[in-house]
Amino acid sequence: MGATRLRGFFFIRSILFNYNISQSSTFSTSSVMAKSKYEYVKTFEQDDKILPNTWIVVRLDGKNFTRFCEKHHLEKPNDKRALHLMSKCATVVMQEFREICLAYGQSDEYSFIFRKDTEIYNRRASKILTNVNSLFSSSYVFFWNIYFGDKKLMYPPTFDGRIVLYPSDTNLRDYLNWRQADVHVNNLYNTTFWMLVLKQSLTNSEAEERLRGTLASHKNEILFSEFNINYNNEPIMFRKGTTLLRKKIHCPPPDGKLKQVIMPLHSDMFSDAFWEEHHEILGCTSAPIYTGPIPDTLTELSNLNLRDVSGEFPETDPSPTKHERQSPAPLPLDELP
């Protein structure tokens, strides 16, 4: 009798054990299936995590834009529509990636400066570069008709990109100085070159030969004596490029709320005064209230009639919410003319 009970006990335990195994298999099938024998291929992926506590600079540059400009008959030496389109695309990128504290653009390139303490995408270089580049490139196509009207986009533009790391504030400032110096050198040359071609009917080769070996003073003299152009009176956007910064401004009444915007400036970044005025860049702090004159390029901000704003705002923040201080939402731009 005892043997019979013992056999019955083991029989029941066996049934319960098999039932538990069945239930476990039912609920863990997906996890088992996910770890297939092909999982090993992930070991071939490179670890491209960026060094910590370094400034991340993403620079995008138009690929073969000389041909692109010729194909689309852009104005020489500068086409405001193209420059404004580039700044619009950069604004979209800054609205999407709030870790970008500054963007600087000229001609067919834009540089985006990520805060040195950012942890976006776990600081993976490939993720940062591809997301910034793809958003900028798609925005260029998306907003093309806003700036060029009925002019057809003949083929999709291409932008190459790279990431450069700068360990110190001095390195970052020198990088931006380098890019702004490039604006001056290239724009002075291009302005003189195209005046010779368009106004004096020189061929491209003849204009190149005329300018070969000339200094900045020589080019300024050619512009002034032969074309009555004072280079210092050329549009400042052409001479200094465009700097985009995050700033807070007060909406006009009756709203009166504090909003964050992407502020386009054409400033000299060589001077210490620029970095003292915009201390939030190197300090990695939240966007301050903007107390300077309102740029004309902000007159078309959505939901804001900035023509009614004097540019003189209170020096204190009227009790912004905790959310606004930590992660203020950018105000969308309908158009950055």
TrEMBL record:
Any one Gene Ontology molecular-function term assigned to this protein's record: magnesium ion binding
Q: Which UniProt keywords apply?
A: GTP-binding, Magnesium, Metal-binding, Nucleotide-binding, Nucleotidyltransferase, Transferase, tRNA processing
Q: Which residues form the tRNAHis guanylyltransferase catalytic domain?
A: 38-167
The Thg1 C-terminal domain, residue ranges = 171-249
Q: Which cofactor does it need?
A: Mg(2+)
GO BP annotations, alphabetical order: tRNA modification
Question: Is tRNA processing among the key words of this record?
Answer: yes
State the Pfam families in the record: Thg1 (PF04446), Thg1C (PF14413)
Reactions catalysed according to its record: a 5'-end ribonucleotide-tRNA(His) + GTP + ATP + H2O = a 5'-end phospho-guanosine-ribonucleotide-tRNA(His) + AMP + 2 diphosphate + H(+)
**What role does this protein play?**
Adds a GMP to the 5'-end of tRNA(His) after transcription and RNase P cleavage. This step is essential for proper recognition of the tRNA and for the fidelity of protein synthesis. Also functions as a guanyl-nucleotide exchange factor/GEF for the MFN1 and MFN2 mitofusins thereby regulating mitochondrial fusion. By regulating both mitochondrial dynamics and bioenergetic function, it contributes to cell survival following oxidative stress.
- Summarize subunit and interaction data from the UniProt record for this chain: Homotetramer. Interacts with MFN1 and MFN2; functions as a guanyl-nucleotide exchange factor/GEF for MFN2 and also probably MFN1.
Q: What is this protein called?
A: Probable tRNA(His) guanylyltransferase
